[in-house]
Amino acid sequence: MGTCRHAEIPPLHADPGRFNHSVHGARGLFALGVFLFHVVNSGLPTWAVVQGPAIQYLLRTSEFGVELFFCISGYVICGTLRRARDPATFLADRAIRIYPSLWVSILVIVAIGVGSGQHGYDTLDPLRLTWLVPASMAALPGILPFGNLNPVGWSLSYEICFYAFCTLFWVARRRAGAWGVALLAPAAGAMVVFYPRAVFLLSGVVVAEGLLDSPRVAALIRYPGVWLAVFLCAWRTIQLRSLPQDFTVVPLVDWAGDARLPLAVLAFVAATLGLAGLAAGHGLLGRLLRGRLLQYLGTISFSFYLWHILVMATVKMMMRHSGLAALSGGAAQIVFLLLTLPCSVLVAHACQRWLEQRTGKWLRQRLRHGVPLDLAALKISIQH
User: Fold this and answer.
1) What secondary structure letter does DSSP report for 141?
2) Which of 202, 214, 220, 303 fits a 20 to 30 Å CA distance from 12?
3) pTM for the whole thing?
4) For the chain, which residues make up each domain, given as ranges?
5) Which residues of 112-144 are buried (b: 16+ CB within 10 A; e: fewer)?
6) Exposure b/e, 198-215, CB count within 10 A at least 16 = b
């Protein structure tokens, strides 16, 4: 590999004029991770060897692609904030980015649920549905304790809260300087204490703001894949040690009396160093992320993340009703994967093109917003 020459290490902070292909490809990889978790967690039969504790331990770490998405969000939003004209423009661009795809996915899910009577819609109180629909469309469930009509939409509530905090910090810094920021810091800290997953948004901020730009850190981040593996194992161990509770809703202070707190610190450090290595394009993983396939998956990753769960529910129902699930035996999960992956990609491609690109462009023209750098870069990426 040769000696590490620190002078050749590129800066890690977000550059408003630079599209990071490695980080973009990581979006596609992490979306695939969440997809894999839902295959493993589908309840369909699989081979006995796959059901072993060690294999299940590794496969179920794919669930934490969501936390790694948070890392990327923290990284990308720092650049977005620098490019935005004002707080209102920043929030409007974020809303245009998220809500069209989310709204359509929720309306389709509700229409199918009500029409088929599946997944509890046959007993769902219509009055409850009248407030669940707007709440889910606003991306409130997740942070707020009530059901989400799109099962994967909970993570968007973290994103919305993060955007709100960014806007508040922006306004406070302009009007009150460091004192204004200091007054808001406890609220951000409370968010992390009560929702530990939110800490990974700070991982992206740390990398984007160049807080790791030093020769010593440059030597540590040469192999980002190793750091991401450390994060996955540490976070999975916390999850297992928290059973039977759902560790994502347990306050961070409850971890202080055992090994979970040091494991959480290790997970945060590992995720941050892993993201720093990816942002710098290091290692075999950094090279793979710049490949054509993962660049394409990065482009459709948001739509893929939102829609794959609906495709999976439809395919699984068809497999069970047709007898294909029983006929496949231990290969049922593999058959399920092979059927749902191309369908999910096709749906995501259509939604990315029509809801993210064209609808987003139309809304920005009406609001007289310029096209954000990340969307312009996505267009270049998908063309090449």
Assistant:
1) B
2) 303
3) 0.90
4) 6-383
5) ebeeeeeeebeebeeeeeeebbebbbebbbbbe
6) bbbbbbbbbbbeeebbee
